[in-house]
Structures are given as structure tokens and as C-alpha cells.
Amino acid sequence: MTTQPYLKAGRDFAFPDYKPRYPRQTSFKINHYRLELKVDIEDRRVDGYAEIRLTSNGSMAELDAVDFQILEVTGVKERDYDGKLLTLFFDGAGEKVVGIRYRAWPRTGVHFVEKEKGYGFPFVWSHGEPEYHRNWMPIYDYPNMKFTTELLVTVPQPLEVVSNGELLDRRNNADGTSTFHWQMDKPHPAYLISFVAGVFDKDEEMVDGVRLEYYVPKGLGKLVKNSFNKTADIIRFFSNYLNYPYPFKSYRQVCVPEFVVGGMENTTATTLTDLTLHDDHAHMDFSSDPLVAHEAAHQWFGDLVTCRDWSHIWLNESFATYLENLYLRHDKGNDEFLYELYNDLQSYLDEYKRRYSRPVVYRVYKYPEELFDRHAYPKGGLVLHTIKNIVGEESFRKALNLFLTRHQYSNADTEDLRKALEESSGMMLEKVFEQLVYSAGHPVVKVSYRWEPETNLFKISFKQVQAEDSPETYGLSLDVVIHSGGEKVERKISLEERETTLFLSMKNRPEHVCVDPELKVLRVLDIERPLEEALSMVEKCGSVVCRIEMIDSLAKHGGRRVVEVLERVISGDPFWGVSYRAAKALGEIKTEEAKAALLRVLQKVKHPKIRRGIVEARGSFEKDTEVMRMLAKVVEDTVESYYVRQAAAISLGRLKLDEAVPVLVKALDYPSHAHVIPSGAVQGLAETGLEKVYEHVSKRVEKSYPTPVRVSATVALAKFPEKHETYTLLERLSEDSNERVRHAVVAAARELMDPRLLPMLDKMAEKDLNERVRRGAREVSKKIRDHLEKGVEYKSLREELEKIREENRRLAERLYRVEGKV
């Protein structure tokens, strides 16, 4: 049977000019890439000499090279360069050695950080994913070619360089520079090549013969333990789970300032944001473990085996996301695992509802980085979780080992994964992949049930009601657990039809029903649950997922009894995530009883993550001075966690009280991990909506402030749509050198939805150096234009109605006159 991908292409992802993009075809293969690079920090320049050993099947090879000054090319018959592609011509096929001497002032791909933001030293680091290395090295910049590499990087002393593979040599030069010679002896794609230059504190350890190294900016060595103490256990867990030992000799993690993402899994040399480094106080409720696990998982999925083209990026990102969650299960237990799956589902659904839907594997795109979204990360991880539960965990693990072994140090696509899963499980999975991977959307199941005492039958009905962007009917199975008379009845319900109804013979009236309590399936459930059941069972049910879903149901009902139950859940549930959700539910209810309950539990609950939920919920009580006093106390209390104080600052602003402003202004200078309290204070000030706080917000977009504060302030400008300065600032910030700030400009524009921003957004959509910024800007500009068109349509309709009314008035007048004559 031949698969039929893209049964449902989704909605709103592809713009009209988008076309299917297929893997690049080449007539050559790079075997080894050796690069000598000298970094000029003051001039933000690189001078390079690339020696490329390749095999040509024809007489030509094309390398990506953007805005280079090509000084010399050797080993070719002739060459041609158009500013983007360097075309090499040979005398026939065969083994070639090409030398390219060049100079470049990279606008992206290599990032220079001034010493003021680099702890007293400058930093330089590269970032290649998906296709940014073409801005500083002549390279085949696409994932479907892998080769060994050498980097010899020269930097000013006292900087040192960290790169892929092993350090072969370090040489101090007479001109005050040092040269570091790194070699990667296993093939990897261009985007995983990396170098970082800076001044570091370093630590290392061994795990099962693998050397683990940790590089952090000089002076921050004391923070290594909090961030990286689980690394050895993570490497060992993945090696055991996959039955495939860590595939390289060493693994190093390098923290740098101003990194553009959380982490990047460069082969053997992951680059991480320095914001993941944290002190003991932050360690109360902040952890680097998810980031560390995610990037480490990529050493198998992404580095050892690399997606053949970007449409299959889920093979990198979904696996890293899911393996990160599996490590969480190993490290902290099943409740934490299920809660993370639940949060992943909500994250994906947020993108699905607010922005677009697309298949997990999709070829119709313009920029590769558009595909690095919540469909590729959390949704893809949930798809893998669903497949694991279909084939069984033992078969799933065997399939992953087969997939890795078969395609090690090479490329693979989604069909390679499907075949490995089928071989290991003995199951046919084409339908599963067509529905979950090659189609957009997800199952939505409406569940209702009724007890019939006359016959002792329990009727339970399932109806698939997913939207038109999803397959009409999914073939899936849901676990159902029915609690009745102290007994637990478990059934697996197969849903092959759009509607399914079952009658179960029961001795006693069911007290409680859990559907898919272990969240084994990517799904949305709409359960018609009786209020009394939720009230009585939310404190008793053993499933974290089911308890959270009951809390969501209770929040919609409200009422005194619901508030009383939720208050007990906050204080007494054995898992913090359920308590957090219960606190948020009280914020949604917004009654005086809910407010009083939140004030009481804040006095009793000590867990910082639950306290965060409580103070977040209290922001719902606008203009309440009692709540304001309690939140102000939290903001000012240095014993509280940084993140609880940040949440309190934001909630304080949401109350929209003048009296909150002095507290928030003072909080702008509070020290905290990753500047979260000042960032929260900026957001809180903006939430007040008061004109007098505008200066505090607007001046913090300037480069003298830390990036997290600048980002928060840039987004916060959207709270001041009436200020002309807002639009002037956003236009200036749209050309800021900081990618995170430009992302924030797009976020502010999305909230403002103002036509005055269209020229700025159009320019960003066309020219921004970052592909995701381009995508976001185009998306927002389209939304604004859609609103304008609707406005025009409404205006046209109103004008037409006015014409009709006028005609009717005239007709009435004529009729009146006629009648008058009569």
C-alpha cells in the first residue's frame, strides 16, 4: 500500500506564494572540511581559508556563501560568485581539493558580544541552524550531506575557543593571539559546526568512558553544579533507554551571553544561554534539567542521525522533546511526566487555536525555520508518545535502536522511522502515520455517560468532533477507568467509527469515570461530567491528568462549593501541578469567596510553584486594595522565590491601582535570576495602563538594559496604543541588532493590530535576518490586513444598509403622501 501524505494540509500556515520544497540535489560530496579562521572582534570580521576535500560526480559544485569577499580559489578550472552562491568548475569528475581564501563581515551566523555584556570579556559564537553558516563560511549549507571537519580558530588572548570533536592543539602566537585546532572525526552536517570564543571557568567529569566538560563565563564556575549536575545521569539514561551508547568521545556544554535560543545541539559541543545558570535561591523552582536533557538527546536524534531535509525536522525536535520528558519520568516520577505531557498538549493547542495548523511533516514552506514550531516540538513529542503506546514501549525502544543503528552518522526521513517501527512491532502503521504525522489537526472526542438503574447498565458514548482541518475519523483506542462501589473497572475502547456507544453491565452506580487517565493519546476530550462527580472525586482520583481536567470543569461552574473544594486541593493535593491548576481556577472564578480562599492558602502553602499559581490568580481581582497589599508584600519579600515575586509583580499591575506603581518602580532594580523580577515589574507597570508609567517602560527598551528586560519592555509597549512614541519606538527596535528584541517587536505588533505598523512589518517580513522574525511579521501583517478588509466589508455593508434605509424612508414618505391624499 502506498501512503497518501497530506490528507489534511491544515489552515493558515502556507501563504499563497509558498511551494513544496524538496531535498537539494548535488553532484558532489564533501568528505572533509578544514577551516582556518581568524576572528577580528573590533571589526566584527572573519578571515578564512577553507580547504575542502570532495568527490565530484560531474564538473561543477555549488557552495553557499553570502556577502563574501572572495580573495582566492585554488583547485578549480574556474569559479563564479554572485554574492550568494560560489560555483566551482572542474575538469571532469573525481577527487578534488579546493582552497578558498575569503573575508566576511557576517550579519548573522557569527555573533559578537561586547565585553560590557560578556562579564568583562568579549564573546564570539556561531549559530548555524537551520542555514546561517553560509554567512561566514563557504559551505554546502543543507542537512543532507555529512562530513568530517577541522577548525583552526585564531582569537585574541586571553580568549579560548571551544568547538566540535577533540582539541588537537593550542598555540600562543607572537602577535598576542592564540590558535585552537579542533577536529571532528565523525561526519556531521554543516549546521552543527560550531565555535565559541570567550573566557571561561571550566569543570569536567567522566561517565562510562565519556568526558563531560562544562564551560561557563569566567567568574560563574560556582553555578555549574546547579545547572549541570544531572548531565551524567542524562547521558547514561539515554544510552540505556536507546540501547545505544553515547556516540562520541566527549560532550561539552558551553554557556554564552546573548545566545539567540535556549540551546543548540552542535555535535559534541552544545551552546547554551548563560540565563540557564542559576544560584541556590533560583534553584527553588527553576531547573536547567529540561534544557540539558533536550540538547543531550539531540546527540542521538539530530547529530548521530540527521533529518534528510527540513520537512522532517520532527525527527530531530520531537524526539528531543519526548526523550526530555522520558528522562523527567525517570528522574522525578510518573506524575511529573504526565503533567509535562499535559502542558505540551496545551502549548500545541495554543498555537493551533491562535495561529495555524499543519501536518507534522510538511513540505510547503518558504523558510526552514518556520517549521521549528509547536507542531514540531510538543505536538510531535505527543505523536511519538501515542505511537509508543500503540506499539508498546518495548517495541518502541527496539525500533529507536534499529533506526539509530541503521542510519548512524547519516540521514533519514520519516518513512525510515515508520519502517523501523513496523519491523520491531510487527504492526502496519501507515494509517497511524497518515493521520498523526502527514495530516494536520488532532482527535477531539466528546464523551457522555449515563447510569440506567433499571437495567444496571452504564451507557458511555464517544463522538469524534474534530474540526475540518483534521481527518474526519481517527482510528484510536482510549483507556476508560470506571470507579464503582470501591472497585475499578478498566476497559480499552476502540474508536474506529466517528460515533461509538457502549453498554457495560455494572453491579453498582459508577461514582467516577476517567477517560485516557495516562494521556496515552494525542487528543482533546470534551467530557459531559456531572458537577457532583467532579466535586466528590477531584480529591480522590489517582490520575493527575483526570484531576486537572476535573479542575478545568469545576472552574466553569464556579459557586461556593467549588471554591471550597479547590481550596482544599491547593493545600492538600499530593502533586504540586494539580494544586497550581486549582489556584489558577480560583482566579478564573473571581468571586469574593475565591479571593478569600486565595488569601488563606497563600498563608499556608510553602511550595514555590504553587505559590506562583496563587499570586498569578490574584491578578484577576481588579481594583482590590486588599489583594494589592498582599501582592506588594510578596514582591518585596526576598525570602520568596524570584519567580513568585515576578508573578506577583505582574499580578500587581493587573489590579490597575495607582498605589501599586511605587512598589513596581522599586522592583525594577531588584536583583534576580535572568532579571525576572525587573522584567515582571516592567510588565506589571504596563498592565496598569497608567500614562505616568510610560517613561519607566519605554526607556527600558534601550541597549543599556539586560536583554530580558528589553524584551519585556518592548512587548509592553503594546499596552500604550494611544502613545505616538510607541510606534516610533517599535519602528526603531524593528532594526535592532538583538534578534530577541525584534521577535518582541512582532509580539507587540500582534497585540496592537494597528495599520500604522504595516510598513514596518512588511519590511521585517522581507528583510529581517532571522527567518522566524520574517514569518511572524508576515503573519501579523496579514492579520491586520484581514481586519482592515473586514472593516471595509462592514463599512460597505453599513453604507449599503444606509442606502436601503434611505430608500425605505423615501418609500414610506411617498406612501404617506399618497395615503394623505386618499
Automatic annotation (TrEMBL):
One of its GO terms (cellular component) is membrane. Residues 227-435 form the Peptidase M1 membrane alanine aminopeptidase domain. The keyword Zinc applies. GO terms for biological process: peptide catabolic process; proteolysis. Its cofactor is Zn(2+). Residues 787-821 form a coiled coil. Keywords: Aminopeptidase, Coiled coil, Hydrolase, Metal-binding, Metalloprotease, Protease, Zinc. It holds the Pfam family HEAT_PBS. Residues 31-192 form the Aminopeptidase N-like N-terminal domain. GO terms for molecular function: alanyl aminopeptidase activity; metalloaminopeptidase activity; peptide binding; zinc ion binding. Its EC number is 3.4.11.2. InterPro entries: Aminopeptidase_N-like_N (IPR045357), Aminopeptidase_N-like_N_sf (IPR042097), ARM-like (IPR011989), ARM-type_fold (IPR016024), PBS_lyase_HEAT (IPR004155), Peptidase_M1 (IPR001930), Peptidase_M1_aminopeptidases (IPR050344), Peptidase_M1_dom (IPR014782). It comes from the Archaea. The keyword Metal-binding applies. Belongs to the peptidase M1 family. PANTHER family: PROTEASE M1 ZINC METALLOPROTEASE, PUROMYCIN-SENSITIVE AMINOPEPTIDASE-RELATED. This is Aminopeptidase N. The lineage of its organism: Archaea, Nitrososphaerota, Candidatus Caldarchaeales, Candidatus Caldarchaeaceae, Candidatus Caldarchaeum.
